[in-house]
From TrEMBL:
Source organism per UniProt: Dyella kyungheensis
Transmembrane segments: 39-58, 64-82, 89-107, 113-131
Lineage: superkingdom: Bacteria
Keywords: Membrane, Transmembrane, Transmembrane helix
The protein's name in its UniProt record: Uncharacterized protein
Length: 153
């Protein structure tokens, strides 16, 4: 193995990212991996939202400002995760925008939400990487399609 493969070159980068919070894109697999961060962030937010909405529904009062209407949000996040998984640039941007809007609203209305700022920052990076990954994926796919086909001799 070459040192490039071990330290994150073309082959090694698929398996080892030097920085999870701001990955580099050397190939389509790197873009897919970064895009998947957006998938997992949306799925995580959907599960947490659904759990808190269920607790709110069972306890008959709002929990952390979340009530049973949050199921709509959870469903939206599941759809966003699914579409990011299909490498949709539009849904990656929508997921990021929804997350940012919800966090601004949450921090403005729920003072105790500031305790979750580190988790929010980590998820924000995941959503940003989801956007970056989906755009890089499509850019690399288009570049690959433009490459002249090598004839087998």
């Amino acid at each position: 193995m070459s040192s490039q493969e071990i330290t994150g070159g073309v082959m090694g980068s698929r398996y080892k990212q030097d920085r999870w919070y701001w990955p580099t894109f050397g190939n389509i697999a790197d873009a897919e991996q970064a895009s998947n961060q957006g998938v997992w962030a949306a799925a995580f937010c959907a599960v947490v939202t659904a759990v808190v909405a269920t607790i709110s529904l069972l306890s008959s009062h709002s929990v952390m400002g979340i009530n049973s209407l949050a199921y709509v949000d959870a469903v939206l996040l599941v759809i966003i995760a699914w579409r990011i998984r299909r490498r949709s640039r539009v849904f990656a941007v929508i997921g990021l925008a929804l997350f940012v809007a919800e966090k601004i609203f949450q921090f403005a209305t729920q003072p105790q939400a500031y305790f979750g700022i580190l988790m929010a920052v980590a998820l924000l990076f995941c959503f940003i990487n989801g956007v970056r990954g989906t755009f890089a994926y499509h850019r690399m796919l288009a570049a690959k399609a433009q490459e002249p086909a090598v004839a087998n001799a």
